[in-house]
Specification:
Blueprint lengths: L6 H19 L6 H8 L3 H7 L3 H19 L8 H27 L4 H6 L1 H18 L1 H20 L4
Length: about 160
């Protein structure tokens, strides 16, 4: 009897593992061959689910941002400052590796290409939505700048 494969579940499993690989190896350090080897699948199997490294990277970004949306849920009854701190607590553990990965991904791309990239758009939209839910639209950009700046300073000073 042939093996029954839930292709959607398997694709999610591949995406989850590939997102960890990208986080560890960077964007430019990864290739479809290297990702496939790491996942223990053939390159053709990986290409069956993802037509390119960019498509795989976008799927990984979608996976990570979907998980982040769940994790970013804060206590709506808590004061604003507490909710922002809750958001920071969720972002802190992976901030350094995500920052390195994002910079590696953007390296060599024109700013127009970065602005039009679906993975970058999705990440930015997710972060904006999370902070907008806490402080509202009028203050979202300033608060997001402050939040990312705080995380960057913590990262650069070795606190995270």
């Amino acid at each position: 009897m042939p093996k029954v494969v839930d292709h959607e579940a398997y694709k999610i499993e591949l995406t989850s593992a590939a997102s960890k690989y990208f986080s560890e190896q960077g964007y430019h350090g990864a290739s479809m061959r290297k990702v496939a080897e790491h996942l223990g699948v053939s390159k053709s199997a990986l290409y069956h689910y993802f037509s390119s490294k960019d498509e795989l990277f976008l799927a990984c970004t979608e996976f990570v941002m979907a998980r982040a949306k769940q994790d970013f849920t804060t206590n709506e009854d808590a004061p604003e400052a507490v909710r922002i701190e809750q958001l920071l607590e969720v972002m802190r553990p992976d901030f350094g590796s995500e920052l390195i990965l994002m910079m590696d991904f953007m390296r060599g791309k024109a700013k127009e290409a970065v602005a039009e990239d679906n993975a970058m758009k999705l990440a930015l939209e997710t972060y904006y939505k999370c902070i907008t839910d806490i402080v509202g639209e009028t203050r979202a950009e300033a608060e997001l700048e402050a939040l990312l700046g705080k995380l960057l300073l913590e990262c650069m000073s070795g606190k995270i």
